[in-house]
What we know:
- By secondary structure, the protein is of the alpha+beta class.
- The chain has 11 helices and 13 strands.
Amino acid sequence: MVRNLGEAGFTTEMNLSPIKRREKPGGFPFRKYWPYCNAARQMTSLQMDKNNWSSWDQLKWRRRLETFGKDDRPVIATGPQGEVDAVCDLGQLTDKGRETTLALGQRLRHLYVDQLGFMPKLIANADMMYLRATPLPRALESIQQSFWGMYPLTARTASFSPPTVITRTPADETLLPNESNCRRFNQLSRAFAQRAAKRWNDTKEMTYINFLISKWMPEQEDGSHDVAVDSHPRLCGIMDTINSTLAHGPKTKLPSNFYDTKVREIGDKIAVEEWYSGYKESQEYRTVGIGALVGDVVSHESGMMRSVLDESDDYILEAGDEDGGLSQGRSGEQRIKFGMSGCHDHTLAAMLSSLGTFEGEKWPPYTSHLAVELFRRDDAQELKKPTSKAKLSSRMPSFWSTESTESTMNDEGGISGKATENLGNAEKEKMDGYFVRLRYNDRPMTVPGCRPQGKHLDGNESFCTLEAFKAICDKFTPKNWKEACTSNLDKPFFPATPQDAGF
């Protein structure tokens, strides 16, 4: 029997698209202000109640957006039917986004609380949970809604302590490919995007898209109104708008030409190539783009394994301690049992592409989630190698998130702190009987490098041995992410030959 020891999971947000408001100089039929954010009617902020930080209260307020009117006079922004309240700010989590992330949390509760009995039905604190979000507000809002779905008020005691949510400054963020703060990744991503433009701009596929929607495009620098990979707006931005308007109400729908099935299929294929082909072809792209995050996931898996072997009792620090403390939780909890990270479509697709499991996939749908599960055979501590036809059971699943900026491992001297190729036989034997599985939107994914015999659970290739999975991830885990981001700035952008992902 194989037991589930841990699950590293990441959920995307349901956001308002586009992130930038699209003007209409060429007749682009996009509604600038959407009336789908009812949270704006009832905002709350903490306020200091005394002349020190010892007493705080909440101020309830309503937010309205202001914009330019006639002769640049300030006017209140309104929705398609004159709405002044519930108007969304840029990239804000919409009502539909809150609905779907709440539902995700409810599904997590059904699986991990009701079915598997791993997480408790009633909690007095969230010390066993690791919650993290990127700096973008909608990612934080997604995590909060998912947490609320998993543990609603009725599942928390009256004395429930506020949960801790981890965030980072943009310069240290590894929970998404950080093009803004990693110079080498910025170079590489632009090079691959430009390659996609050269491949697709003068094709029959792009001609088809232009035949249907170019009449709504603003004038480009060359005087045309053509849609292109690198047009303004870019094709990927138009696709983002199409997908987002499809997910919301009729008030903000585009003309029917934008929803043509072939337009959507072509646009999705090109956007996926533009954004994610680098992860499939270049080890350096994987390293600076998503390697730090993947390395941290492997670190946590190895730490979980070590804790089972009683080698360590502190493979991950508790994040929800009393004020000023980090070592353990309010109830003495030292081990995170469940972690959940609010991230973005780029995060999920980058991880899957880097592990060779995104071939033929479409752009991640809203509220997608990715789980990285760690399993252990019941007799793993007694076996040197797993026996065949092992049965599976579910126990102790959880979500993990990242912890170290430079993807340094939890212990420099342990298994998680060394590349697999540098491990001794005794250290490798400790990983016998442990398996890793990826689940993308509840679909098991198979890492190609785990298909050979001996690198997966007999009878199921989606269960990769921990040793094989770690070895694959080690190849693109940076020893120092920030240093890697400032290296090779004068080197070629593309490898001499494709460096296939997932091996």
